[in-house]
Write a structure and sequence with these properties.
Layout: H1 3-7, H2 11-14, H3 21-31, H4 49-66, E1 77-79, E2 83-88, E3 91-96, H5 103-112, E4 118-124, E5 132-136, E6 148-151, E7 159-164, E8 174-180, H6 211-220, E9 224-235, E10 238-246, E11 256-262, E12 267-273
Parallel strand pairs: 4-8, 9-12
Antiparallel strand pairs: 1-2, 2-3, 3-7, 5-8, 6-7, 9-10, 11-12
Length: 295
């Protein structure tokens, strides 16, 4: 198939009856394109270059054939080997098929439908592989409308969901796509842990137990411990909290664990309530987040 020939087909050439000579010629070229069998990719494996180029060429040709966008402007649907996005009334339907793909493949699809966003492929726990994380608005969302995501189930892909956000939002928007983490690689978490209630260990309740008790259980399971102190502070008329990563030397055995969460495949973070003899709470300072890290 000659791409130069496709480039000469315009929307006006395809208007009218589906039996127009230009349309028949284009569709014949698409349908007669030889397809390679699709192979499942794994973390660390590269998709064959010929397959990716073939899929991209077919997707571009199909977009022209059905007239879903004007040259130079956003389209209403777009698909590549990593993700497909379709614009509907009020939201965008997103299906992630290859969470290990390069972030540029995801950005390409979002921007094709008019969304100027940054996408980062980040390490996550096995249960979160393929999920869309965010949208994150580091500067805060101050615009008309709303912004958010909703997961759709059942789903035959790695992730199916709805994304809604104003296409003209001028601020910085970041999405994450969860990929399998390497052994020992820290997970990216979508949100803060609950001060009371998150439990990492199946069949074991850590909330309310001492640090020494929970550490013993982790050792029995062959897991290491990380530590985060949970500090409370007054915020207007209410109580808010934040957590601070600390070394083991800052933790006492008789302090109480509020929650636990997997930090990586071999480490569990203990969220600990500081005892009465704890040093004064530090001033709240934001730790670097995944969406602020360089690509």
């Amino acid at each position: 198939m000659n791409l130069a020939d496709l480039a000469r087909v315009r929307d006006k050439d395809l208007a009218g009856e589906a039996s127009a000579p230009e349309t028949r010629a284009l569709m014949h070229a698409i349908m007669s394109e030889e397809r390679e069998p699709v192979t499942v990719t794994r973390a660390g494996h590269k998709v064959r270059r010929g397959l990716v180029l073939g899929l991209a060429t077919m997707a571009a040709a199909a977009a022209v054939a059905v007239g879903i966008g004007l040259v130079g402007g956003p389209v209403t649907s777009y698909a590549n080997a990593a993700v497909s996005i379709k614009k509907t009334d009020g939201y965008f339907s997103v299906n992630i098929t290859d969470p290990t793909a390069d972030r540029r493949s995801f950005e390409e699809a979002f921007r094709a439908v008019g969304l100027n966003v940054t996408v980062k492929v980040v390490p996550v726990a096995p249960s979160d592989v393929g999920k869309l994380i965010g949208p994150i608005v580091p500067g805060g969302f101050k615009w008309h409308g709303s912004i958010g995501t909703q997961t759709i189930r059942p789903c035959s892909s790695a992730f199916c969901g709805k994304v809604w956000m104003p296409a003209d939002f001028p601020g910085r928007v970041v999405f994450g796509v969860g990929r399998p983490a390497e052994p020992g690689e820290p997970y990216v978490d979508e949100g803060p842990v609950a001060p009371e209630g998150d439990e990492a260990l199946s069949g074991y309740t850590s909330h309310g137990k001492t640090v020494a008790d929970v550490r013993t259980e982790l050792s029995r399971r062959g897991l290491k411990a990380g530590y985060r102190l949970v500090w409370q502070y007054r915020d207007g008329g209410g109580i808010s909290w934040f957590d601070e990563a600390v070394p083991a030397s800052r933790i006492k055995n008789d302090w109480i664990v509020a929650s636990t969460r997997f930090h990586s495949s071999d480490t569990v973070d203990l969220y600990v309530t500081p005892g009465k003899d704890a040093v004064p709470a530090p001033s709240r300072h934001p730790e670097p987040q995944w969406y602020d890290m360089p690509d």
